[in-house]
Specification:
Blueprint lengths: L2 H17 L6 E2 L18 H7 L9 E4 L14 E11 L5 E11 L2 H4 E4 L15 H4 L7 E4 L14 E3 L2 E4 L8 E5 L4 E4 L3 H5 L5 E6 L3 E4 L2 E2 L1 H8 L3 E2 L2 E2 H6 L4 E7 L4 E6 L10 H10 L2 E7 L7 E3 L2 E2 L5 E3 L5 E2 L6 E4 L13 E4 L2 E4 L3 E2 L5 E2 L10 E5 L3 E5 L2
Antiparallel strand pairs: 1-21, 2-10, 3-4, 4-17, 5-23, 6-19, 6-23, 7-8, 7-11, 9-10, 9-11, 12-13, 12-18, 14-15, 16-17, 16-18, 19-20, 21-22, 24-25, 26-27, 28-29
């Protein structure tokens, strides 16, 4: 191991233990990052991305597709369907290695999927990190996994980030593959210009950056992505090696029905798991049409109903066991929200619909109803122990 990396691990661990944060429960040993120490690359312009992509795509550097249930008020149950798999992956001409993982299909993603900051809103602003399990408590996530990359020295969240319609982070035009959901419910995969990110006509309500566009319109897009995103070196060797090394991987994509697909494959860098081409080909077999790669290696974590179900590879501080890493943003599948979330304190939110109490009515449970005449024009319906018409004087 590189001496400066050993020094970094020692200093980081010492700082975590001193500040008493929850971030001190593990030591990062399985680091898989596409970025040179302390930098966020590549430095290519969006014009260069357009110029080096296949001619058939013209000047369009991202894909926009309708999401499942985009124009429907009905939520299709179950919201998530998760499957566990174990299979052999061809790691070389002569060798196969077995890896397992999970895949989840998410219905109605424009209402049931969110990008969450670490721990809480504002977590990225404070360069905070937390386990996926801890951050998933914000929305009672049904399924959650790690998402965007982060600076392993400072904790800074990297890439463009939008969470619940809030602009959290602007990458200032750095060209990495992104996944997003627009206000109209459509799904977006690919490379975005600053104008795309800042669009206010149909803005992003969820957005997160990865590294590596795996599938584009049903075709493996890894080689094209390497040309765009490889820039000098990164923490595991050459930038190209980031794409080619076997490791634990996470990805987000969509299928032909517009369902969002979350995928996690267990691994350990340079020992077992998959590289990005293997991941892309596997996703294609599963019927995924578009997909990008998210943070992997020791960051890879998959949580279902409050339980970590994958096999993290970082070392706990007692050095006896493996622990889940404290990461930055997460992807969260959850029940749809009501507007307002608490149904004006006069109802229960069930699958995105307010079910009002007593004489409260309306989509927001903020309208009183005092019977068939509702006081007519001669009184005011008021909320006391009884719902009464008070006569106007």
């Amino acid at each position: 191991m590189d001496m400066r990396w050993e020094l970094y691990i020692f200093i980081t661990h010492w700082l975590w233990m001193c500040n008493g944060e929850e971030m001190g429960s593990q030591i990062m040993v399985d680091v898989l990052s596409p970025y040179k120490l302390g930098e966020h690359n590549p430095k290519k312009l969006h014009r260069e991305v357009r110029d080096c992509q296949p001619v058939k795509y013209g000047n369009v550097t991202h894909t926009i597709i309708p999401s499942h249930g985009q124009n429907s008020s009905t939520i299709t149950l179950p919201i998530t369907t998760t499957k566990r798999f174990v299979r052999d992956f061809q790691t070389s001409i002569y060798e196969k290695r077995t890896s397992g993982g999970h895949i989840t299909f998410i219905n109605n993603p424009s209402r049931t999927l969110s990008v969450l900051e670490p721990l809480e809103n504002g977590g990225c602003g404070g360069n905070r990190r937390a386990t996926v399990l801890k951050s998933s408590e914000q929305r009672k996530c049904i399924v959650s996994m790690n998402a965007g990359f982060f600076n392993t020295h400072t904790g800074e969240c990297l890439g463009n980030i939008v969470s619940g319609g809030r602009r959290v982070k602007n990458s200032n035009g750095i060209q990495n593959a992104h996944f997003g959901i627009k206000q109209d419910g459509s799904l977006v995969f690919g490379y975005l210009s600053e104008e795309d990110v800042e669009n206010t006509t149909n803005p992003f309500i969820q957005l997160v950056g990865g590294v590596g566009w795996l599938l584009r319109n049903g075709e493996v897009y890894v080689d094209e992505s390497i040309k765009v995103e490889c820039d000098e070196t990164e923490e595991t060797g050459s930038a190209k090696e980031f794409f080619e090394v076997v490791s634990a991987r996470t990805a987000i994509g969509s299928d032909a029905e517009g369902r969002v697909v979350l995928v996690n494959i267990d691994g350990q860098t340079r020992k077992f798991g998959v590289n990005l081409r293997m991941m892309a080909e596997f996703l294609k077999e599963l019927g995924v049409v578009d997909a990008i790669n998210l943070d992997g290696g020791g960051s890879a974590t998959y949580v279902i109903n409050g339980t970590v179900v994958d096999y993290p590879t970082d070392t706990c501080t007692d050095r006896e066991y493996n622990c889940a890493r404290q990461v930055s943003t997460i992807i969260c599948a959850h029940e749809p929200e009501c507007q307002p979330e608490n149904c004006s304190n006069h109802g229960d939110c069930i699958l995105g619909t307010c079910h009002c109490h007593d004489n409260w009515k309306g989509a927001r449970c903020d309208e009183l109803f005092c019977g068939s005449t509702n006081c007519g024009e001669h009184g005011k319906c008021t909320n006391g122990e009884l719902f009464l018409c008070f006569v106007n004087v």
